[in-house]
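Q: What structure does this chain adopt?
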Amino acid sequence: MNVEIIALIVLVAVFAISAIRNVHMGALALVAAVLVGVLVVGEPLDDVLGGFPVDALLILLGITYLFGIARTVGAVDWLVDRSVRLIGDRVALIPWAMLVVGTLVACLGTSHAAFTIVPIAMSLAHKHRIHTTMMGIVMSSAIVGGALAPTSIVGITVMTVANAAEIPYNAGLMFALSIGVNALVVLVAFFMFGGRELIARGRAAKAKRAAGDTGPLGSAGGTGVLTRTETTKLTGYQLMTLISIPVLVVAFFTLTINDVDLNLGAVALTLAVLLAFINPKVGREALGKVDWGTILLLGGIITYVGVLTRLGAIDQLGEAARSVSVPIIAAVVLCVIAALVSAFASTIGIIGALVPLAVPLLVPGGGLEMTGFIYALAISASLVDCAPFGTTGATIVASGPEEDRPRLYRHLMIWGLSMVLIGPAITILLFVVPFLGA
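A:
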């Protein structure tokens, strides 16, 4: 048995042991990375630990710490309460409004900027009794949908790789297809996780309010949709905390435009430390709101996938796909590989690795020329990002209500891993099959 197979078996064992014995998956994966990398592969320990995703974890730490401060001082609650006046009875529109806002922010340079919206969206879901899984999928779809815009890093990466491989590519069409597919995903999630109840609740509240029947605390007939709320005046510290959110977005965009290579998490952490310096007690309390378990999960999984990548296991899977004699089957295999690896690692990285491998399928005579395979591959690799093994899914879980995180983690894991098969199936059927033989 070769080393690559052993490493893949160990990865499966990590999942199995975590599920059966309820051992933290991130801790298991990190130990497995060290044991396999050092003892089986023979890598130096520094190389193994070099795969630890410091950038991704810094994003998680910075964002959750900053918004932990905002929650500790009640700034997020104030913001959510103020939003009630605008939302009124239309509670079913909240997920769609967050989809639009998140997508617009994700388009502007880097999709990571949309992580600043995630804690607000999850707070709105908790406040309005919207299923957190629904909101998590909404935010993931917003982030990955906007990420494939020609103005975003991922979209620019796909365009650059495609152009370098001389593959016909339309950046505007890529963005439109990404938005369309992700809107379809949100529509499915909306009705799977309580959308009908939200619509019914809003209609009932509107009818009872029209009849003059209001319940306590301004809830229409006790339906739980707030139509009137009393908001207290912001303190100076709360105002500073709220101002730090748009400052984070603007500062990061400004640094990105000026080619300053600075992690979003570093900017968020800087603002959080400044707020903690002003009020050390709040800073200490907010540290308890950082989801260290999710950070360990992400770090362990990505470190192990790094061992697999350096082993060449991913490249071998791609080469195996290219050796398939039927191009459409090879296309499906490559999309599934892209989705599976992207669930645990960098979407940009896997797209950059697999697009060149797909070139033989796309050149004249390769069987898939002038088709939408490049679009199918990129979207397949991004649809799985809601899985909690990657930065997007981990940020969503860490931003959810503490008591709801285990359920949210479980649902996003199932949903994300299901997209490993569903995403390629849908995208291949829509973007590749219609053009076969054209």
